[in-house]
Amino acid sequence: MPKGKISVQTENIFPIIKKFLYSDQEIFLRELVSNAVDATSKLQTLARKGEVSGDIGDLTIDILIDKDAKTLTIRDRGIGMTREEVKKYLNQVALSSAQDFVEKYKDEASIIGHFGLGFYSAFMVADKVEVVTQSYQEDAKAVRWVCEGDPSYEIGAAKRDFRGTDIILHISEDSAQYLEEGEIEGLLMKYCRFLPFPVRFGTRTETTYETPEGEVAEGEDKPEPVKVETEVDNIINNTDPLWKKSPADLTDEDYKAFYRELYPMGEPPMFWIHLNIDYPFNLTGVLYFPKLSAGLELQRNKIQLYSNQVYVTDDVKDIVPEFLTLLHGVIDSPDIPLNVSRSYLQADTNVKKITGYITKKVAEKLNGLFKDNREDYENKWSDLGVFVKYGMISDDKFYDRAKKFVLLGNTEGKHFTVEEYRERIKENQTDKYDRLVGIYTADADKQHTLITSVQERGYDVLKFEHAIDAPFIQSLEQKEEKITFVRVDSATPDQLVQKDEEKEIVLSEEEQETVKGLFTEIVGTAGSVELKPLDTTDAPVQIVRPEFMRRMKEMQMLQGMDPNMFPDAYQVIINANNPVVKEQILAKEDAEARTENATHLYQLALLSQQMLSGADLKAFVDRSMKMLS
């Protein structure tokens, strides 16, 4: 056969292709099957224009394995190539025939491949590549092209009795896994499960049950159905996925069934958004809202990105805002550049428009649900709240939209928008600096005693019990006017909302020094001691964790610092006006009894905060039994 040289800039192009063309070697199958889809799509376009004579017939793409010959073949029945086209498109690396076709038929063709190196990905796994092709054009002759992984090639006549192209990969020894049916079927299911033309890979067994024909005599049992197993073509893809259809033609069950197709083991979604836009960019897709209460990290990488139904990636953090990566579903857009650097992707104007559009649609959907059926929306809030709060923290535009439908839930099970909650607490929870003070609990069960004490003062208590709530609180404080949040254990109940009122301490200065000295010795370095004039009915000893210090520690821990580097700083507040302090401590002449009672009160405060354990807890129990007896 005549020989020639492939037009490349360097003799080392093939080693570069083999090692560095794509980060994932397996991507070669996506590229070659995508090329087959392109060739088939081109044929359809030409047929619609009347440039193909006769019926175009079967357009199935076949994937064939021959273990004996160690070959993997991708066969299409598409447009095919003439000898001149083979020379033009296969012999010049990085020249894409798809680009030429798009230019000619840009208003009609839907072409996947814009990557000139797609075909050459074959050399990532093959020592030799053969192309046998026959153009759709009348009287066209079949052509065979062969290259063994270097810049030389052979081209000549071939035998082929139908239109289209076979790409035959002679798989290299170090890529032998691509001769295994399970491996190839897995890749086809990953990359090709929604391609627009049927992709056939071998056969599968279809089982049916047939009842034998004939009449059944009176008194005789009906014959048992007979199991019938039939070998049928194994078409691995759904050529008409749900996101390509009109929402008006779909039911809720259709959307749920498609979700099960995408995530067979997943819980049913709460609801979904159908995306469909053709200006100023093209984008279709369906995004589902999963239940998120289990956590954040486990939910990521569930949005699948497609380009004209070809799977590209499930890592879409550079295409959608980070908080939207918590959603599940499909985005399909030919306008997203796929084989470019991350920095280029982040700067691309189409990508920025797409992220803005998706964020807007998500906000509109949530606002509509909130307005249309608030009760149902509130019932879903335990799952929705994580998503909405994360969005408000990470995206300013979403924050502005979500203010209308973000909910604050209190310990009584009621929900309020930010503005509703302002109205609810403004009369009773406005401090001396004219700030609204939102009081919250991070664990309603553990802090039940404190919550009750706070509520007895007429204060409302919010539940902020998820990991997302700490940064959410800070976001509200930064962006909302004159509002601050304090946890129920950050001060004594009467000091949570700072007022101008000051009570007098009933103890003398000498008595105050005695009490403070005693408790300072007992508490040691675990915390600081302070006397305050609280109500006589308030507990004699209370443990508080100042809001600012606690938040600093939490922030440092979130940044990966060792939590042991920051001791659990707290304050021990002695209620100088509680009669127990005077009667059970100061009134005791015996120093040992005085110390024992003070220790018991201190440990009682620790116990109420679930901070008492080990030997100290045993000592407290033993002392309690001794007192009772």
**Averaged pLDDT:** 86
- Content of β-strand: 15-25%
User: CATH homologous superfamily of the largest domain, by name?
Assistant: Histidine kinase-like ATPase, C-terminal domain
What structural class is derived from the secondary structure elements? alpha+beta
- Major sheet: 9 strands, mixed
Number of strands: 22
Q: Shape from CA axes?
A: elongated
CATH class membership of the largest domain? Alpha Beta
Q: Could you tell me the radius of gyration in angstroms?
A: 36 Å
CATH topology descriptor of the largest domain? Heat Shock Protein 90
| Low-confidence region ranges | 94-98, 109-116
The CATH architecture classification of the largest domain is 2-Layer Sandwich
Number of helices: 19
Looking across the biggest beta sheet, what order are the strands in? 1-6-5-4-7-3-2-8-9
Kindly, what is the distance between the CA atoms of the first and last residues, rounded to a whole number of angstroms? Answer: 109 Å
Task: Note down, in words, how this protein is organized.
With 629 residues, the protein is an alpha+beta fold. The protein folds into four domains: 3-200, Histidine kinase-like ATPase, C-terminal domain (Heat Shock Protein 90); 242-372, Ribosomal Protein S5, domain 2, CATH 3.30.230.80; 407-495, Rossmann fold, CATH 3.40.50; 509-628, Heat shock protein 90, C-terminal domain (Four Helix Bundle (Hemerythrin (Met), subunit A)). The protein is built from 19 helices and 22 strands. The strands form five sheets. The protein has a nine-stranded mixed beta sheet with strand order 1-6-5-4-7-3-2-8-9, covered by helices on one side. Strands 10-11-14-12-13 form a five-stranded mixed beta sheet, with helices on both faces. Strand 10 and strand 11 (283-289) form a beta hairpin. The protein is elongated, with a radius of gyration of 36 Å.
